[in-house]
């Protein structure tokens, strides 16, 4: 089992499930946001994130979810049609009441009829990403297949194209900051240091004259909340706090006021 059950992000799992005929992603970038769209079985899936790879992974996860549930529903319906009528069980045998067992066969799906390997590989990947986001060091995982086999596909979220690990060997620390870190845009710098972390939209207040949006992000065991006059400014504020707390970055005034 370990020979094929390797962590794979949603984009890779979806591509393997759909095969070479899978549609291409349509990616559009607007400022600090990137939107990825893909059509699977005439259904459009889209997601927005801080970078292209993360947006594609989020859209792929939505498509994977729907494909899996559709497959389960289809298998359940096929089994229901093929199921033969079962003879009625008597209420009593020799005067002794017989306890009838509920027939829940239709609620179960045989694992051999379901693409479990794709779902399990993605589940492993998602678990490792969550652990890494909480500050744990995730080791490099290599396939035990023969050398003639194709190399494992790299993680889309971290952009490590051409490498054999699915996650970074070591979580970036302050020593990995670029020399001019204080001059970088906060959201761009945080995306570089923690590429797998997505912002959470926490909504806004109801004041139409002084509208204020809120955004949150969870990383390294901390939760940061930013506020601003727009969603972008709210994410920027959250990134400023995160970079200061986690990496000790004090941004230049031109960045803070820009």
TrEMBL record:
Say which species the protein is native to: Anopheles culicifacies
**Recorded superkingdom:** Eukaryota
Q: Does the keyword RNA-binding apply?
A: yes
Please name the GO terms that the record assigns under molecular function.
RNA binding
Q: What is this protein called?
A: DRBM domain-containing protein
> One Pfam family this chain carries?
dsrm
Question: Where are the stretches annotated Disordered?
Answer: 146-165
Q: Which residues form the DRBM domain?
A: 199-248
Task: Give the record's keywords alphabetically.
Answer: RNA-binding
UniProt KW Transmembrane keyword: no
Kindly list the organism's lineage: Eukaryota, Metazoa, Ecdysozoa, Arthropoda, Hexapoda
Q: Which PROSITE patterns match?
A: DS_RBD
- GO biological processes: regulation of gene expression
């Amino acid at each position: 089992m370990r020979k094929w059950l390797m962590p794979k992000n949603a984009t890779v799992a979806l591509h393997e499930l759909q095969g070479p005929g899978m549609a291409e992603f349509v990616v559009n970038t607007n400022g600090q946001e990137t939107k990825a769209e893909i059509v699977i079985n005439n259904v459009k899936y889209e997601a927005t994130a801080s970078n292209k790879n993360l947006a594609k992974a989020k859209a792929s996860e939505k498509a994977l979810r729907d494909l899996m549930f559709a497959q389960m529903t289809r298998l359940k319906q096929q089994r229901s049609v093929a199921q033969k009528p079962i003879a009625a069980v008597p209420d009593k045998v020799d005067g002794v009441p017989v306890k009838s067992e509920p027939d829940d066969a239709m609620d179960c799906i045989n694992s051999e009829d379901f693409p479990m390997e794709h779902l399990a590989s993605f589940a492993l990947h998602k678990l490792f990403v969550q652990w890494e986001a909480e500050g744990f060091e995730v080791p490099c995982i290599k396939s035990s297949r023969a050398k003639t086999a194709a190399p494992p596909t790299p993680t889309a979220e971290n952009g490590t194209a051409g490498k054999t690990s699915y996650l970074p060997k070591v979580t970036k620390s302050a020593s990995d900051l670029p020399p001019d870190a204080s001059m970088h845009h906060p959201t761009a710098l945080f995306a570089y240091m923690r590429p797998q972390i997505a912002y959470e939209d926490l909504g806004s207040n109801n004041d139409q004259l002084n509208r204020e949006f809120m955004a949150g992000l969870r990383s390294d065991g901390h939760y940061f909340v930013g506020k601003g006059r727009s969603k972008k400014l709210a994410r920027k504020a959250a990134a400023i706090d995160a970079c200061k707390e986690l990496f000790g970055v004090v941004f230049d005034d031109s960045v803070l006021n820009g």
